[in-house]
User: Fold this.
Amino acid sequence: MNNAQTQLFKKLLRDQIAGFVSVQRCTLGQPAMAAAPVRDVDIVVKMWAGVVIHIHVIDDPIKVGKVRRIIETATDTGIPVMFLLDADLLPAAKSHIPIDQWYVPFQSLVDDRAYCYRIEDHAPVILPVQFRPYSRIELEVSYGAPLAISQIQHSRVTVRQSSLKGFWLLADFESDPSANAPPIRRTDYSGYQYTGPRTSFQDMPHWEKVPQGEKSTPPPNTSQPPKSKLEQAYEVLGVATNASREEVKAVFRKLAFEVHPDVSTLPKPEAEARFKLLSEAYAFIKTANRWG
Assistant:
């Protein structure tokens, strides 16, 4: 979009959000701040509950370091943030893109998808977009149906993507359930095998698609004895078998916090299963070492 179209989109979206029942006021422009902001806020939403939400309309490529500083600064002041990307800056559906594109990290902020925008019939349109693993070095672009937004919500979210990793205040849209538009699905990782070191779940470079007809796990190595249950427990936590009690405890607490169903961005059943697996592995290690 050119500048005039972007300004029109901001005004149209402001008017739409201002009509939400939970919104007290919605304005354009940067609110008064004591210090210079990392980036001017495009839309400021004041909720009746007293929460202020900042929306950034991204109409030019932006470095991920700057995005992180925006989120950090807002979270430190108790302000949830949201990012909307100009659809003209993104590739077409089904395109295959390198994993290091500037817009890819945004999908880690909103439940495995990013938001992009455009104008249709003089109305603001918000589209969810995903960058799904396609090969070891490429992602495939996928767009969902336009959102029939009815509310704006906020929460504190654990982000695992390495460049934006943290526990941030973020905003999201609620869609009108009567709109009957299928939501964008979460990326199904069952067809991919993890080929990198233990690191962030959403570090895409380490996912490699499993060729059809092949199993996702290699055949067992019969030249080595099977791992004991204790070794498997250490492996679940990702620590060495000679790790100290303090090291094991610290790793468990960190991982358990990330996947706890109350804070995890994963689907609740998956988060509960991962939390249970971590807890059982930690309990077994403590019992085996008589740590009490």
Notes: Residues 223-292 form a domain with the Helix Hairpins fold (CATH 1.10.287.110).
